[in-house]
Inverse folding.
């Protein structure tokens, strides 16, 4: 952020505000929520893989694991709903993205 | 029966008092209407009419709107940037935001700094962020709702020189780097001028009108996070303007210069904030999409197979 305009003056210029003041519009909220839902789905997938496929059935002999599953049973319902929302949104937005990005491929080209 | 009427009277009295309190919290006396003696409801009605008429007249004479304007001065480096409030009477001011800025600078605070030149939306100097979106101040009418303040800040994510003036050297350098001039390999066919059909000239509509105000580039979050590498929608719109120009012979070289690495053109994530904010209603997102299409379609199949062959160790 240092900007030398004369050899003796070092001015530290501020950056004008961007995220706090910019109006959230439809055009800008779609891509960022696409990214956030994609990251969310990736973490869910990763933890699901670790938890269900890698852990082995021996874990159910431990008392704490059964307690954990019992007490978090309501939470699982909510997180499944949220994951379904994220997945559907991500898919719809992905299809829309593909359609708009490749809309120029079928047209007649001038060169 | 008498019990019912007592309850009804009491209920009516309470509801009237509550309604009066809600509708005119300030005054309870109101006006005195000698002709309406004995008609309580009519007197109340007349009081309400008087009060709304007074409010309307007051609003017509004094339409004061609050403007919160970003201030920072290099003369007072220790002071952090802040939003300063100015109150402007809208009935004595022009309709556009630039008129408000001129009025404030002329009458109230002459230290307010901003760029302006043509006052008609063709030079692009007065570009700033008004109420959350980037536009040129001379084309943006004032929002007449006087209950909410208008927030005016400089173009987002740019280094501030003073108040609403930002440093646009990087933006201009990017425009220069796409070489915005006609480059030809052959002299003109009849020795006089490079001719173009009407259809070919129509391809340039929507591209040449760009006034380089920097509204679109500074609204793009991808440009905020990578200003040195990503060219920004304004420079890319002009790059496409030269690529589609039928008189220009260096189309392939221009495309190749843009797509050499993956940051100059392909950092565009089709967020489309640029199209939403352009004050001249141009469509940079469309132009960038066409350039990407052109680049992706221009790779002939034989060349890619040859490249794959070389990658797998064959000669």
């Amino acid at each position: 952020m240092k900007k030398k305009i004369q050899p003796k003056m070092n001015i530290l210029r501020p950056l004008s505000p961007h995220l706090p003041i910019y109006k959230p519009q439809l055009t800008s909220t779609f891509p960022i929520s696409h990214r956030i839902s994609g990251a969310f789905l990736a973490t869910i997938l990763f933890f699901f893989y670790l938890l269900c496929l890698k852990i082995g059935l021996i874990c159910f002999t431990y008392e704490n694991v059964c307690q954990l599953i019992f007490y978090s049973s309501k939470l699982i319902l909510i997180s499944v709903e949220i994951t379904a929302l994220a997945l559907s949104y991500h898919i719809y937005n992905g299809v829309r993205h593909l359609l708009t990005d490749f809309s120029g491929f079928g047209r007649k080209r001038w060169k | 029966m008498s019990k019912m009427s007592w309850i009804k009277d009491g209920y009516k009295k309470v509801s009237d008092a509550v309604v009066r309190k809600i509708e005119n919290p300030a005054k309870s006396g109101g006006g005195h209407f000698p002709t309406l003696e004995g008609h309580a409801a009519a007197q109340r009605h007349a009081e309400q009419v008087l009060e709304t008429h007074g409010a309307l007249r007051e609003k017509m004479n004094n339409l004061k709107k609050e403007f919160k304007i970003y201030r920072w001065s290099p003369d007072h480096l220790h002071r952090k940037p802040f939003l300063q409030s100015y109150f402007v009477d809208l009935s004595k001011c022009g309709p556009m935001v630039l008129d408000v800025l001129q009025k404030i600078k002329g009458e109230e605070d002459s230290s307010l700094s901003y760029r302006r030149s043509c006052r008609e939306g063709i030079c692009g100097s007065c570009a700033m962020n008004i109420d959350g979106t980037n536009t040129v101040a001379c084309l943006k009418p004032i929002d007449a709702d006087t209950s909410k303040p208008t927030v005016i800040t400089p173009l987002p994510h740019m280094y501030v020189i003073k108040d609403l003036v930002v440093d646009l050297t990087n933006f201009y350098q990017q425009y220069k780097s796409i070489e915005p001039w006609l480059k030809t390999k052959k002299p003109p066919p009849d020795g006089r001028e490079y001719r173009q059909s009407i259809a070919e000239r129509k391809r340039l509509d929507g591209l040449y009108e760009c006034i380089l105000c920097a509204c679109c580039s500074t609204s793009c979050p991808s440009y905020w996070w990578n200003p040195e590498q990503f060219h920004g929608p304004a420079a890319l719109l002009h790059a496409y303007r030269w690529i589609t120009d039928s008189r220009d012979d260096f189309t392939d070289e221009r495309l190749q210069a843009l797509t050499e690495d993956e940051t100059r053109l392909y950092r565009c994530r089709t967020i489309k904030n640029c199209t939403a904010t352009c004050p001249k209603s141009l469509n940079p997102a469309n132009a960038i999409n066409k350039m990407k299409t052109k680049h992706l379609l221009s790779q002939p199949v034989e060349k890619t197979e040859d490249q794959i062959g070389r990658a797998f160790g064959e000669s």
Observations:
- Residues 58-103 of chain A form one domain.
- Chain A touches chain B at residues 1, 3, 11-18, 21-23, 25-28, 31-32, 97, 100-105, 109-111 (CB under 8 Å).
